[in-house]
Write a structure and sequence with these properties.
The chain is mostly beta strands. The protein is built from two helices and twelve strands. Pfam families: FdtA.
């Protein structure tokens, strides 16, 4: 997937009277090797998360419960997306600014990442991000 890109992926699932079972298999369903797994939950009302981009990291966001919005910026175009289904994941490439906001009560999101945590890999200043997008074109 090119830098600054995103796409939705269907999460395989099975629903029966007991509920929904969703599953992913690393080499089959995930477009990168999983090196870290983390989650976001119990977000206070009005709180925003993200506000950064990654230099090399790919991520897959799976909204497990509730909903939230994600604003994406590739340096030229902004997209405002609703994440509200555990059967629809969002794959983000590197060099893509993200802001997560408007979390519903009880929202929870699982994130699969292609690399372990590395603070040096983050771009936390939007102007630095815009310069990086210009350099990558």
């Amino acid at each position: 997937m090119p830098l600054g890109a995103f796409r939705f992926l269907d999460v395989p699932s099975h629903r029966d009277p007991r509920g929904l079972l969703g599953f992913v298999e690393g080499s089959r369903d995930i477009p990168f090797a999983i090196r870290r797994v983390y989650y976001i939950c119990q977000v206070p009302p009005g709180t925003e998360r993200g506000g950064h981009a990654h230099r090399r990291l790919e991520q897959l966001f799976i909204p497990l419960a509730g909903s939230f919005r994600m604003r994406l910026d590739d340096g030229e175009t902004q997209h405002d997306l609703l994440l509200d289904s555990p059967t629809r994941a969002l794959h983000l490439s590197p060099i893509l600014w993200r802001e997560l906001y408007d979390f519903s009560p009880g929202a929870a999101c699982l994130i699969l990442a292609s690399e372990p945590y590395d603070e040096a890999e983050y771009i936390r200043d939007h102007e630095t991000f815009l310069a990086a997008t210009r350099a990558s074109r």
